[in-house]
Amino acid sequence: MQHLYKPLGEFLELADHLRFDAAAKAAQAWFEHLGRGGNTNGSTVADACSRYVKHLRAHKTDRAADDVDARFKNYVLNNRRLASTELTKLTPSQLEAWRKALRELPTRSGGRRGELRSESTLNRDMTCFRAALNLAFLDGLVTSDFAWRSKLRPIKNADRRRELYLDRSQRLMFIEKAPADLAAFLRGLCQLPLRPGALAKLTAGDYDKRLKVLKVGQDKAGKDRRIKMPDVTAAFFEDACKDKLPSAPLLARADGKAWNKDAWKGPVKEAVVAAKLPEGTTAYTLRHSVISDLVHDGLDLLTVAQISGTSVAMIERHYGHLRSEVAASALAKLAL
């Protein structure tokens, strides 16, 4: 008969007269865990994070796994006490403290670097940790999700509708006030609803002049997509590809290097001020404005989602309110 041994700890943080009761309670919880078919290996939070990264590599992409791995190292594994905690001993109070500390931790990248996290940013930061713990629960490493069920719950309505919109004249002014290399990049964002990072990664070889098709590689959506260009847009991209090797950036900086968020951040801010655009305008504002126009002009949400590289649910959540105007216009045409 096989015997299982499980060290419960010395409970040195407790007074002498409290240790026996604490040990008895821990032993009872362990027996209940085994009774529900729980894992006997005593997996920790760090183990759960590692297993989730491996899960992403096997079932998603290396890019997604690398992103999550970096988040774990920055926000979870750097807390040694939390990382070494066994999943069966994880408590709501621990996760509440972790969430509070993360909320107060300044952002480390992007245009809001150094600022406190917004609710939407906090939700994104928590997502992978919650997913790792949920996978551990589904795989039987722990038999209850009570510890994180409420404490890592996403904040409702954090991803509010994007209200900052630039009309066509404002977009033209944005382009006009930008340096020539940035102006070309902004013009590209005004013609396609791409994320700035996705446009920056495109090479001359991604555009097929013969078919007038642009291939957008793995974006946030996680898979390639191909966009058929109308003649007027095709002319812009054909000119951008002229005399370039297939591996060269499609829309490069003046020094020939590819754009990135650190490179465009300063020049974009200067162009926003020069063009007297609303405070808070960024390169991403152009994506929102273009999507808004597509939805408002009546393009079906599925096509908008496919072109922009996101889900129909996300388009509906942020831009569905614009469909009411399209519907009203359509209904008006029915009047006798």
Give a description of the structure.
The protein is built from 16 helices and 3 strands. By secondary structure, it is an all-alpha fold. It folds into 2 domains: 110 residues, Tyrosine recombinase, N-terminal domain (DNA polymerase, domain 1, Orthogonal Bundle), CATH 1.10.150; 161 residues, hpI Integrase, Chain A, CATH 1.10.443. Strands 1-2-3 form a 3-stranded antiparallel β-sheet, covered by helices on one side. Strand 1 and strand 2 form a beta hairpin. Helix 2 packs antiparallel against helix 3 and helix 8 runs antiparallel to helix 9. The N and C termini lie far apart (86 Å). The mean pLDDT is 83.
List the helices and strands and how they pair.
Elements: H1 16-35, H2 45-59, H3 62-75, H4 80-83, H5 92-104, H6 119-138, H7 146-149, H8 168-176, H9 180-191, H10 196-200, E1 207-208, E2 213-216, E3 225-228, H11 231-241, H12 261-274, H13 283-296, H14 301-308, H15 312-319, H16 323-332
Antiparallel strand pairs: 1-2, 2-3
Helix pairs in contact: 2-3, 2-6, 8-9, 9-13, 14-15
